[in-house]
Amino acid sequence: MDNQRRLRVGVIGLNMGQWHAETYKNLPNADLVAVCDKDAGWLEHCRTKWDVPNTFTDYREMVAMPDLDAVSVALPTFLHLSVALAAFEQGKHVLMEKPMAMNATEGEQMAEAARSAGKTLMISLNQRFDPDVQFLKRYIEEGNLGEIYCARTLWRRPLGGLPASTLDRPTGVYTGRNWFNEAAKGGGALRDLGAHVIDVAMWLMGFPELQDAVGRTYTKFISEGAPASPADADDHSVGFARFTNGASLQIEASFGQHIDHDELITEVFGTKGGALRWSGRPPKLYGQTGGAYSTTEPRLQERKSGPQQEFVNSILEGRPPLVRPEHGIAVTRIMDAIFAGSSTASP
Ligand SMILES: NC(=O)c1ccc[n+]([C@@H]2O[C@H](COP(=O)([O-])OP(=O)(O)OC[C@H]3O[C@@H](n4cnc5c(N)ncnc54)[C@H](O)[C@@H]3O)[C@@H](O)[C@H]2O)c1
Q1: Residue where one domain finishes, among candidates 72, 99, 126
Q2: Is the distance from the beta carbon of residue 36 to the nearest atom of ligand 1 less than 6 Å?
Q3: Whole-prediction pTM value?
C-alpha cells in the first residue's frame, strides 16, 4: 500500500451515512472532506460534529469537487443509480449502500459506468465483515464442507418494529423515511434485509450462477408503522433460487411476522459437512466426525475491518474490493426474480 497517500472522501446522505462519516473520520488513510444532505439543518449539525470543511445540499455539486477522490452513497435506493452515474462522470470512486440498485439492469448500468470511468465501485454489504461470516468463509474455503449443494438464508423480525416513516433528529423531525415502505422507491423487507442474507449465503456458496428463482412477496402489516402513504412494499418475502451447478438456496426476509424474536440465519450444506451462522451466537459446524453431529464454537473475534476500510484500502492498494459490483448484481437478480414471482431470472 502507498503509505503516504490518503483518500479524500465525501458522504452523501447522512442517516446511515453517519456511520460512513464516523468511520472515515477514524481511518488512518482517509480524510472526510465533504458531506451532503438535502436537510440543511441536519447537514449543518453534522458539519459541526465532524468538523467537515465542505457541505452540500446538492450531490451534483459535491461530486464535481476537484479535491475529492471518493464518495459513500447512503441515499434511498431509488436514487442510487443516478448518483453513482454522476459520481463516475466526475471521476470519483463509489462505495454504494445496499441494495446496489432497484434491479439488476440498473446494477449493470452502474457497473458499466464504473468500468468506463476506471473507478472502483464497491457495495456496502457489511455482513460480509462479520467475524462469524469471515470465519465460515475460511472454513468453507479450506474444503471442510465438500461440494456445497444447498443453503438456507433468512432475516426475520417479530411484529412491533415495522419501519416508521419519520425520524426524530435534534434539528427537527425527518419525514423522508417512508421510502422504506414504498415499493417504487426500493423499500420493503426483501431489499432491506434480504439483500444482506442473500449476499452472505451467495458468498459462502461461492457465488454460483443463477439458473432461475421463484418467490412470493406479502404486504400484510407494513402500513402499521407508516401513517404516510403509499405503504405498498413487501413486509414478508420468500424465495427459492436454483443454480446451474445444481445447488439451491431458500430465502426469507421479514420486517414483521408472528414470531417472538429477531432471527438471522444462514445455513450451508455440503457433501462433507454443514455450517450455521445464527443470530449473534457462535457459528455451528456439523458432521466433522465421521458423519456424527458435532459442534465447534470458535471464539468470536473483534471485527477487523468493514466496508469503508476495505473500500479505501482496495483503492490505495490498486486491487478489487471484497464486495464487487458483480456480487451486488447477482444479489439483485435473485431479488428481481422473487419480485417477478416468475420461474425465470429477470434480465
Ligand atoms: N448496510 C446497512 O446495514 C444499512 C442499514 C440501513 C440502511 N442502509 C441503506 O442505506 C441507504 C440509506 O438508508 P437510510 O436508512 O440512511 O435512509 P434515510 O431515508 O433514513 O436517510 C437518507 C438521508 O439522505 C438524505 N437525502 C434524501 N434524498 C437526498 C438527496 N436527493 N440529496 C441529498 N440528501 C438526500 C435525507 O435527508 C436523509 O438524511 C439505503 O440504500 C439503505 O438500504 C444500509
Answers
A1: 126
A2: yes
A3: 0.95
